[in-house]
Amino acid sequence: HVDGGLYLTKCKRCHIVIKTNDFVHFFAGNEWAILEEGDCFELNNQVMHSVVNYSKEPRIHLMIDIIPNEVFG
């Protein structure tokens, strides 16, 4: 999917991986990754992205949205 709406099209979305495993595959654009706990990355949420968890274990990410001041005036 691609994130929509005024808020999500204007923010920078950062992920901090809290809990994951080798069976969680993260896709963004033409790239994919298996992330490790403690990884931190910025996601361009305006490109096609998805995640697939092939295990029964939960994955947990802390997502932090950074919003430019001019968005809210």
What can you see in these coordinates?
The chain has 73 residues and is mostly beta strands. Helices cover 14% and strands 44% of the residues. It contains two helices and six strands. It has helices at residues 5-10, 69-72; strands spanning 12-19, 24-28, 31-33, 40-43, 49-53, 60-66. Strands 4-1-6 form a three-stranded antiparallel sheet. It has a three-stranded antiparallel sheet with strand order 3-2-5, with no helix packed on it. β2 (24-28) and β3 (31-33) form a beta hairpin. The longest helix is centred in the first third of the chain and has 6 residues, at 5-10. It is elongated. The protein starts with a helix and ends with a helix. The model has no long low-confidence stretch (mean pLDDT 93).
Largest sheet: 3 strands, antiparallel
Low-confidence stretches: none
What is the ordering of alpha helices and beta strands? HEEEEEEH
* Widest beta sheet: strand line-up: 4-1-6
Work out the radius of gyration. 13 Å
The total of beta strands comes to 6
Percent strand equals 35-45%
> What percentage of residues falls in helices of 4 or more residues?
10-25%
- SS content category: mainly beta
